[in-house]
Amino acid sequence: MWWKLCFLISLLGFSQLTLAESCNLGKVDSLHGSATVERAGRIVDVNEGIVICKGDIYRTDKTSVLQLAFRDVSRITVGKDSVFVVTEYEMYKDKPNVALFELIKGAFRAVTGTMTHGSHRYEVKTALATIGVRGTDFWGGYGLTENGLDVVMLSGKGVYVTNTQGEMVELGANGLGTTVLPATAPSTPKIWKDEKVAKAVATITP
């Protein structure tokens, strides 16, 4: 009997260690309004200071904005009426760092940190395209173009946008953006007008 007890204790310890590692990604840095996070099948209210876990699904309402602060000092702002998933986040010493996210609804803004200083894969998946990051401050989201996804680079080293409908497009200058419509390749990048940039920023501003 004693060996069964030891086994259960060791299994519990391993589970707690695994949970701790998967929740050592960062914390919710700020919250304006109310939001929820779905974690391990449970939905709970978000509060400032709670840890970020791999697999978290964050949901904001129509007036709420929250900011995720990761341990590499990167920041992701989840905009109003949005659903955003933290799929994977790992920093390595001997292979490329990985940060994978998914935007299901709404908009976000990301400012990358030290994770992108070396070899890395930093991507945000959406229903229409995948947004990849070299190391930058960028915005992506729905709502500016009917049925479309818009992406703009605000500053930094560059952003790429790709899907199964066409070639990858590169956003290599501040203010350069692209639009992706259903079953369509990303549009040729062009500099956004100030009004469009302002509308994008408004979606992630309290």
TrEMBL record:
PANTHER family, per the entry: LIPL45-RELATED LIPOPROTEIN-RELATED (PTHR38731)
Name of the featured protein: FecR protein
Stored InterPro entries: FecR (IPR006860)
Start and end residues of each FecR protein domain: 57-157
